[in-house]
């Protein structure tokens, strides 16, 4: 009986959509010819190759296992990169670093979040993107134009990736600010709209997720600036400090807008409560005006035979005048109290 065919795909037949970049760079920082998956280990063994930069997008398990084989990655890091849904962190595995970054992207007017996993070793840089994330092609091309800095190796490529992730936060923050300014007009509008409080809640939720993505990067960048001398070149640390400053700006802007949104939601609820109170006051005022003639007409509507006022010639007109006088007095009193 023939043995069943293997279900594990050949690494060289991986879908090109998962492998977005696969190139080696010389010691002087220039890009060499593109290589295949099987040639990665050969390129790392060559003295002409400075480092290898690989970019993957939503890779499957066989492709990540191939990367583990070629780069000697730690199995725990590979498992995290495969499952995704990790918190932002930086971990050291032997002579390599594993970083988890939260990315953000505006899709059809809403903010969606994704993850980027980064493996960096002495002679390689591997990025794995999941979910909503802009490609790192512009960052890589910008690095390739500056061969002097590319001579610094994978740590400079890591800076370019971090800088691209953080730079993508700024347009989202600006969009938050613009939308919050627009919502302020709806908050102070005279008519209450349910959509306003619903959108405020959505913004608050997105900002909370944004803070969870941005805030851990402060500690990550502090570690990269101060630690790992065998992986992070001293010349690159000044660039990482610049990224840290950008993260501080984004984090402070996010915290400020979260506070403003909390205040906006409170103000919106307060204004709705005040508006409802005004409506109740007006209804109570009109009810008081109607109570006076109701009381008089119900009093004189009793069918007793010997009520003293019923026999008077002008009793009807007296009651009408009395009713109007009471109503007018109540109207002026309630108007002065701003109940009408």
Description:
There is one protein chain. By secondary structure, the protein is of the alpha+beta class. Among the domains are: 135 residues, CorA soluble domain-like (Beta Polymerase, domain 2); 58 residues, no CATH class. The N terminus is likely disordered. It has a seven-stranded mixed β-sheet with strand order 2-1-3-7-6-5-4. Strand 4 and strand 5 form a beta hairpin. The protein contains ten helices and seven strands.
Topology overview:
Layout: E1 19-26, E2 31-34, H1 40-45, E3 49-57, H2 61-71, H3 75-83, E4 89-93, E5 96-107, E6 110-121, E7 124-131, H4 137-144, H5 147-150, H6 154-167, H7 169-187, H8 194-226, H9 234-300, H10 315-336
Helix pairs in contact: 2-3, 4-6, 6-9, 7-8, 7-9, 8-9, 9-10
């Amino acid at each position: 009986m023939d043995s069943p065919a293997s279900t594990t795909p050949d690494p060289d037949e991986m879908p090109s959509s998962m492998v977005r970049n696969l190139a080696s760079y010389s010691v002087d920082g220039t890009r060499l010819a593109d290589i295949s998956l099987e040639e990665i280990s050969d390129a790392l063994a060559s003295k002409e190759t400075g480092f290898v930069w690989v970019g993957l997008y939503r890779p499957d398990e066989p492709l990540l296992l191939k990367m583990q084989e070629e780069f000697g990655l730690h199995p725990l890091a590979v498992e995290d990169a495969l499952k995704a849904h990790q918190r932002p962190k930086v971990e050291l595995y032997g002579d390599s670093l594993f970083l988890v970054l939260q990315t953000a992207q505006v899709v059809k007017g809403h903010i969606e979040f994704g993850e980027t996993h980064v493996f960096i070793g002495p002679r390689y840089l591997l990025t794995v993107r999941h979910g909503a994330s802009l490609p790192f092609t512009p960052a890589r091309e910008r690095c390739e134009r500056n061969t002097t800095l590319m001579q610094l190796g994978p740590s400079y490529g890591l800076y370019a990736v971090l800088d691209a992730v953080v730079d993508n936060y700024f347009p989202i923050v600006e969009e938050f600010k613009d939308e919050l300014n627009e919502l302020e007009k709806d908050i102070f509008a005279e008519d209450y709209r349910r959509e306003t409080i619903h959108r405020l809640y959505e913004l608050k939720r997105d900002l909370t997720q944004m803070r969870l993505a941005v805030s851990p990067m402060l500690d990550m960048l502090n570690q990269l600036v101060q630690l790992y001398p065998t992986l992070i070149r001293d010349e690159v640390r000044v660039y990482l400090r610049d990224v840290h400053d950008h993260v501080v700006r984004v984090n402070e802007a996010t915290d400020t807008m979260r506070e403003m949104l909390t205040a906006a939601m409170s103000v919106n609820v307060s204004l709705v409560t005040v508006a409802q109170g005004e409506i109740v006051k007006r209804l109570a005022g009109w009810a008081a005006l109607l109570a006076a003639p109701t009381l008089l007409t119900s009093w004189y509507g009793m069918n007793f035979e010997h009520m003293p006022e019923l026999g008077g010639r002008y009793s009807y007109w007296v009651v009408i005048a009395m009713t109007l006088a009471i109503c007018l007095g109540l109207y002026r009193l309630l108007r002065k109290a701003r109940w009408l």
